[in-house]
Write a structure and sequence with these properties.
173 residues; single chain
């Protein structure tokens, strides 16, 4: 977002602004100017790796082209209220159970602004279900003999004739 000073007032210009209706599951580096329609209650999400649970809340935001559900994480919860206008910079889209969610991650920024926005709540981009893309896992790559314990004898690699490391051919224990 550029900032200029005109007659002593700060004026903001959002570069590459995205309309809500144009969000897709692949959207990254999203800049949106939107009004908060509603904010839900925070919920605790258990950590699947056994760590500390995280808090998440959902907010519906929109512009003149439509509305989208936005995920608010941890310290973002409680920072916005209905009727406020937000400038979101460098946001990204994720899919939650096949539905679009706008996020402001650690590299993004959410700022309250004074702009007046009219919201079109007829078009909800989070209502449509999208196919979750499966990540392609290709064959494992070999970097000259890594991975094996016990030092199998196979030519090549780094560190002599033993497979599995940089150790100059010494056995692993």
């Amino acid at each position: 977002m550029k900032q200029d000073w005109i007659f002593g007032f700060q004026v903001r210009h959002m570069d590459n602004r995205t309309n809500v209706k144009d969000l897709t599951p692949q959207s990254k580096q999203v800049n949106i100017l939107a009004k908060v329609v509603s904010v839900g209650e925070a919920k605790e999400i258990p950590n699947k790796f056994g760590g500390e649970a995280r808090k998440v809340a959902e907010a519906v935001i929109g512009d003149e082209t439509g509305v989208v559900t936005m995920s608010l994480w941890q310290e973002q919860i409680g920072t916005i209220a209905p009727e406020e206008t937000l400038a979101i910079e460098n946001g990204y889209v994720s899919l939650v159970q096949g539905h679009i969610r706008l996020n402001v991650g650690k590299y993004g920024k959410m700022t309250k602004v004074e702009d007046a926005i009219t919201v079109n709540s007829e078009t909800d981009v989070s209502a449509a279900t999208h196919e979750q893309e499966r990540r392609a896992f290709g064959p494992r790559r070999s970097f000259g003999g890594g991975g094996g314990y016990g030092g199998e004898r196979r030519g090549g690699g780094f560190g002599g004739e033993r497979r599995g490391g940089f150790g100059g051919g010494r056995p692993r224990y």
